[in-house]
Fold this sequence. Notes:
With 260 residues, the first copy, chain A, is an alpha+beta fold. Chain A has helices at residues 5-12, 22-29, 85-90, 111-120, 122-148, 151-165, 178-184, 189-198, 216-223, and strands at residues 33-37, 42-44, 52-58, 61-67, 70-77, 81-83, 97-100, 104-110, 171-173, 204-207, 210-213, 256-257.
Amino acid sequence: MSIKQSSIDRIRHVSFFNKCDDSVFKTAVSGAFLQTFPEGTTLLIDGEPVDFLYFVLEGSVELSAGWKSKDTTLAILRPVSTFILAAVVMESDALMSATTLERSEVLMIPGESLRRAMRENAQFSFAVSEELAACYRGLVRAIKNHKLRDSTERLANYLVTQTARQDNAAQITLPHEKRVLAALLGMTPENLSRAFAKLNKQGVSVSGNIVKFDKMDALKRLARPAPTIDNHYKQSEQLDGKASTERQRGGHGTETDAIY
Amino acid sequence: MSIKQSSIDRIRHVSFFNKCDDSVFKTAVSGAFLQTFPEGTTLLIDGEPVDFLYFVLEGSVELSAGWKSKDTTLAILRPVSTFILAAVVMESDALMSATTLERSEVLMIPGESLRRAMRENAQFSFAVSEELAACYRGLVRAIKNHKLRDSTERLANYLVTQTARQDNAAQITLPHEKRVLAALLGMTPENLSRAFAKLNKQGVSVSGNIVKFDKMDALKRLARPAPTIDNHYKQSEQLDGKASTERQRGGHGTETDAIY
DNA sequence: CGTTTAGTTGAGCATGCTCAACGGTCGTGG
DNA sequence: CCACGACCGTTGAGCATGCTCAACTAAACG
């Protein structure tokens, strides 16, 4: 086997693999290999054929797309996430580019292995359908977030989501540089600054990548998080192990960090 | 059987059903029924549980979502299209509302029937995965269309896509009221008017729902349609029957009319 | 004929972007 | 140890895109 057992273990319990038989799993990952890339490596280009399903095991990967000299960030993936599943299932070209934001460990499994496992096993195929459905719904949420909220509201909701993920503390650490966060939220770095400034009234104070919350209720009143847009609702279920497959999922793969 | 054979026939050759066995198909559609709704009927509400997979057989259906008194149109479906597949696969709540735009014939099949067919047959399950992957990719295209293009560019590309669908003629008929088209393209009716006016320079002239093209090359130069955003490229393949599953597909189901 | 509705046009405004200047931090090299 | 440069982040000014509101036209329908 060309990949470390530890890597296998890490994806074994992720999303669509976690309930399949060992034999199906073995088929699906046959020919997989692990690779480490430096920061700024382009793994995938918009419009090019896709031969592998990717898993981010360490580091982070940005998914983006461009047109006519404009560029937009679609998502940022952190461990453990998959990406480009849809293109692999359809055997077609990528619709977005993927670039490492830092030194990253990536597991690549041949598309044909995955498809073979799907064709051979209905349970597994169903699980992949569920994963794709969850990704689809993540995208729908992202579109709604983007079209129905202005930049300040998106930031406010991002912060509320992050507090939910970070133990509901009165203080969180931003997981990205602010420029990256701005891209994620669909705004310029300048406007992110201004959005943070506006949230002062709601008791939000920033220094470096630490954000403190003085008036969480006021922030939530502005953010007005909604179950049909945001995905941090069943947080309490995380503890008892009954979390739905959909929980905390982005639009592109498991454990995706907030979209836009 | 509670539904007319003609309705069955119409979905038998659509997307994920067209290559499955009769027995699988029979399982999938067991308990299905056909219903006709007047204009303005709400079929599905944002946040409510979903029990059926829907097919639009006649008329048209708008998918929309709202938050804090804002509303946005996500897609408009025309025959023959499916919708809400992702929620059915995951047995979860709808993320968008569905409303008839006119008197419409809708076929509803119980979610459990579909899921049972998927669990029993890997081929079928794979086909559903392909459908979901295609829907996902339609949404990615929609997001890119929306974030990378301004309103005039979106209209220009919409028009180019429509000409491709309408025989590449120098004149097309708009399939919707302009207010509906505006919602579809993510702008106000006022701005749609202005966008049409701007396209005068590119030889576009409108009267009623007839749009004529004087300088198709100029329009295309402005629109700059791209294979990774627009989906009218493999048009030629339609004729020889080798059209990819993905062709002319929107983000929410088969035969969806342009998203955004 | 009025009445209604779709569409257009104009004026003013809001959100968000660009460009430019400036401050603060960190790492490097003198 | 300090000086310098590179880079991130912030702030301000001006501009562009798109929205709202209102008036007006034209076609459809009673």
